[in-house]
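User: I'm designing a mutation panel for Putative peptidoglycan binding domain-containing protein and want to avoid disrupting the core. Could you give me a predicted structure to guide residue selection? Please restate the sequence first so the numbering is unambiguous.

Assistant: Good idea. Sequence first, for numbering, then the predicted structure tokens:
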Amino acid sequence: MATAVDFYTRVANRLRSWGFNVEEVPGWQSRDAEPKTAFDPTQLFVEHHDASAATSVDGSHAYVVREKLSQFTINRSGLIRLCAAGITWHAGKGGPLHGVPLNNANPRSTAVEVANNGLGEPYTDACTASIVALEAAWCMEAGRGVERVVGHREWAPTRKIDPRIDMNWRRAAVAAFVASKSAAPAPASAAGSYTVRAGDTLGGIAKAHGTTWQVLAQLNGLGNPNVIRVGQVLRLPGAAAPTPAPAPAPAPAALSPDPKANPIAFQRWYNAYPFRPALLPVIRPLANNWGPQSDRALRKVQARYGLAVDGIPGPKTRALLHRLGYRG
Ligand SMILES: [Zn+2]
């Protein structure tokens, strides 16, 4: 399970580098519901809610740990806990989805159980922020796009209702978060070493570090250069610093139409916003002018996604609205 331990350690460290607190539940490294089955935590991320009473801060956390039901939990205060590095029993019958075969997601996926009653309890801002960050960290460490982040009910639509969140909105928020973090440099490997990530090849790693796969294979005693594991730490030749590949120039962000140009369209869109109950009541009646309700709504969206809260639909705000699906 060393590979999964390394993978989750990197996910946790990435979250910490973003300012999130990640608590490690004692024994997480060896907690595994199916120790004899090979585990790849990078093919799918499945979000659940735990259907716990809204009065409990931690919800079902202790039960989830004891019964090995997910790798992560997030409580109502937004605290992220790393519970298990092995397979957990969370997905059940469902799929196939994104190449994960029918009824067989547990050995190929990572799960989070989020404390929420699933009966319309609003997610707190702290809770939502932690969910989005965890899913973004998973995408970045697994080398996956946000389409691989799914709700349990998307895996098992005939059996499950969780989470009661519009997963298209969730994925849009995760994509926006990944984009905001991708400009920052990735955490550096220790000098003279490289940690293998999903999708790496020995030849690709060698090229990126100015050497050949033959040298790396010899230096690391690799019998078969086609077999490297995610999380494996490879020695690099010499002390020369690796030459980073030039970053591709970012594409200009797509902008939504100006929401003030069509207040009713914006109000309709906002009323369908999945976290709106935690923010403001529905805008009613719809009004074809930009009044105080529209202004407050736009400011709430700006605040939630970390933009300047000025109520002005400038380029950054319109890029955000575009990512969130607003098309006027
Ligand atoms: Zn579930």
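For picking mutation sites, this is relevant: The domain at 193-235 is CATH 3.10.350.10 (Membrane-bound Lytic Murein Transglycosylase D; Chain A). Residues 48, 152, 160, 162 surround zinc ion (CB under 6 Å).
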